[in-house]
Amino acid sequence: MKYLKEFANHNGYTAYTADTQNFVKPNVSYCVQENECHMTPNKKESTLDIACDDCTYGDDAIIEFAVSSGATGQIEFILNGDTYCVGLDNQARAIYKYTPPKADFYTVEARYLGDIRYLPSDWEAVEFEVAKVQPVMSLSGNYENDDLVSGDTLIVYAHLPNDASGIVRFWFNGEEWERNVVNGVATFTYSGVTADGYLIDAEYEGDVNYESCSDSVDFCIYKPLTLTIECEDTTYPNKAVAQILASDNDFGYDVSISIDGEYYRSASLASGEALVDLEGLNVGTHQVTVTFESCYCGTYVSCSASTQFTVFPHE
Fold this sequence. Notes:
Radius of gyration: 47 Å
Distance between the termini: 156 Å
Shape: elongated
Oligomer: single chain
Number of strands: 25
Structural class: mainly beta
Strand content: over 45%
């Protein structure tokens, strides 16, 4: 059944009139629906500034972003092959701390993603350098106790930062050796050293994160020596006699003697032996100690020995 027929078309609207011949008035009412119109204002162009100062390996690189005033939202940036996002604060700024994995040149490429008022920005880029560290090498070893003797094995450690890698070159006794750095340490050993004074030089060649550096140390190797001392008991006011023996019959140096921790006198050894009178001692048990102190490289190693004896009351 046809109730309405088209009358005219005005400005995109179609008008209808009643078909009076076939029209049956329905029990309904008619209304007109208004069309809504939404207007979107134009967004503003945005600008993005990036800044990042150079730094040194081990330090954080501080990357600063600044967008047009009043902007909100996020910054997207690419650094060292990875993509990051960081939000803007209420000053339309953002700061990101980046820990560089190695010393190198880095490029930050970034863009602002836009918001309801600002369009996304163009991609911007900035480059910064992460410089190598100037390390400090330190040498240590079993020479530090000043008790290495001829025939011993010399051990020298070159200490560097824990994450350093590469090669350390050692120069000792007119020869050169290369040693790998493992966990920040290069180790050099030399067997069968002879008694003398020595200098050892070490040079680190550097790696991707550390510059080269060097260190040196001098030390002594001594002749081996062992001292022994014996002293028999005595009665007051008699003297006690201490017998001092050196392991090397060629030893002919002065030694010092102390009793109960106090210096008593010196004595000279001839052919590695000496007899020393101990007088003026009180009744009781005493400890006597003989000590040799090395005076220069290549001589005998410092050493000491002790024993106890008793001065009994006179009967």
